[in-house]
Structures are given as structure tokens and as C-alpha cells.
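INFO  loader      accepted 1 record
INFO  loader      residues=166
INFO  predictor   begin
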Amino acid sequence: MQHDPDFSIRTGRDEDAARLIALMGAVWGEYEGIVFDVDAELPELYALATHFANRDGGFWVAERADGLIVGMIGYAPIADGGIELHKLYVARQARRTGLASRLLALVEADARRRRAAFIALHTDSRFVEAHAFYERHGFQRLPGERALNDLSNSIEYRYRKDLNEA
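INFO  predictor   done
INFO  writer      dumping C-alpha cells
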């Protein structure tokens, strides 16, 4: 794993919208059968920082020196004392640099500061590399699936990582 000094991680802003949409569109475009329709299914992308702030969560982006956003991650508290991770995406050219792990570490640090009992997430069944990433980072896949009944006919798996006080 290499460290890419050409990007910095900062708090995301609503004005990042076009670059966040481009990032997610590119990642989703790598998978057959996934429909990326922001207006119909992902309107929060137009103001993602506000979306997470309104849910008492956090949101970060990784930005290259040239302004290209190559990564993003957000979270929001959920019931039962946990937080839910959302929208962890890393551009193809920034993968295997440790960026996804750095982004995940931000969420874990905030979760621990908030004394969250666990981190939960849902991920599309087609995102096989993401499943392996989460499992390497201590997440366990829970039984069952959920159908989103969306334009992509998505089936999602649920993962959870318990946070111990160790």
C-alpha cells in the first residue's frame, strides 16, 4: 500500500456537488446494470454536506492538488447507539493507496468519540471488492439481504463492526 501525497482530506462542502456526482457516477459506471440517476434516486448529492449535517453526522472528501475529488465518506447516527457509514467511494486511480482506509479511520474515530457501540453499513451485492475491504477492516456481514426496489434492482448486504473499549 502506498501513500499518495497528492491529495488531502477535508470536510466536504455542498459546493463539491458536481465533483462528487462525477466520482460516484464513475464508480457506479464500473458495474453492469447499475443506473446512476441523481434526480430520481440520489438528490441529496446536490447538497451532501448539508444532508449529513442535518442528520448530526460527518462528511469528508479527498481532493487532489488539481481539485479532482478522488474519495468521499459520510456517516450519521442511527438507533441503538450506532452510526451508519454512507457513501464510501474512491476513484479507480486512487485505489490501493490507503485512501479508503484513511477515510474509514475518520468515521471510526468520530464513532468512538461519540461512544457509538457499532458502525453499520449497507453495500450493493455487486461491490465485491468493497465487501473484502470491509471484512479486512473488521466488519462482519450480517445474515439477510434487502432489496431497494430501485432503478438498478439493487440487493444490499448489511455489515457491522462492534466498537469495543479496548
